[in-house]
Amino acid sequence: MKRSVLFFLILAICLPYISNAQTSKDILDKLSSKAKTWKTISADFTSTLTDKKNNKTTKQEGSVKVKGQKYFLNLPDFIVISDAKSVWSYDKKGNMCSIDNLEDMKDGSFDPSEMFTIWEKDFKHEMKNTSATVDGVGVYEINLYPNDPQKKPYHTITMYVDKAKIEVIKIVVKTRENTEISYKVKNLKTNVDYPDSDFTFDKAKHPGVEMTDNRW
């Protein structure tokens, strides 16, 4: 499970709180400022992976909770949890869980603690279109480009912001492997009081689980 997936997911979740602005810099600055007031976020989501090379599309539902650098990502086949030091990757079907150091899981893409300000130092951005539409809805179309794309699994992130509601209704991540990942978010909540125990793996909830500890 790549941590970059978490980045795409959390980005999609947080964008609906962007204030009205006409430039990409205004929008991202306002998002960073707003996000600093959030103690936690949670949401349900639908993701769609389009593999253009093999002409294949895969959809899945999931949910996520984030508290500072801690997170709990629940997908149909996997659960990924981090307490900001370790990462638990649980395979639901196999009833197996591996534990890794958070630092060892980094793939050069993203640290969740930098979620809301990463574009300030790691991205170029531009307003591509102020008159675009998505399903008949007027949107702002904004592109993000990593400063060093060779170290990222993607080359472009495109955001579509509803002009009337000032909410992102679509986000598309374009990878170097000719695939696209789009996200739609629902049931967004912020500043819910989640205990730290929510961000560790509880063996008691998974009887017979096979544990593999890769930490040194």
Describe this structure as you would to a colleague.
The chain has helices at about 5-15, 25-35, 100-105, 120, and strands at about 40-50, 55-65, 70-75, 80, 85-90, 95-100, 125-135, 135-145, 155-160, 165-175, 180-190, 210-215. A twelve-stranded mixed beta sheet has the order 7-8-9-10-11-1-2-3-4-5-6-12. It has one domain: outer membrane lipoprotein receptor (LolB), chain A (Clam). By secondary structure, the protein is mostly beta strands.
**How many structural domains in the coordinates?**
1
State the share of residues found in helices, binned by percent: 10-25%
CATH superfamily: Lipoprotein localisation LolA/LolB/LppX
Helix-strand category: mainly beta
- Oligomer category: single chain
Mean pLDDT: 82
Number of strands: 12
How many helices in DSSP terms?
4
Q: What's the order of the H and E elements?
A: HHEEEEEEHHEEEEEE
Biggest sheet, strands in spatial order? 7-8-9-10-11-1-2-3-4-5-6-12
CATH architecture: Clam
N- to C-terminal distance? 20 Å
Give the amount of beta strand, in percent. Answer: over 45%
Q: Supply Rg.
A: 18 Å
- The residue ranges in which pLDDT falls below 50 over 5 or more consecutive positions are none
Name the shape in a single word. Answer: globular
Give the class-level CATH name: Mainly Beta
The CATH topology is what? outer membrane lipoprotein receptor (LolB), chain A
Sheet of most strands: 12 strands, mixed
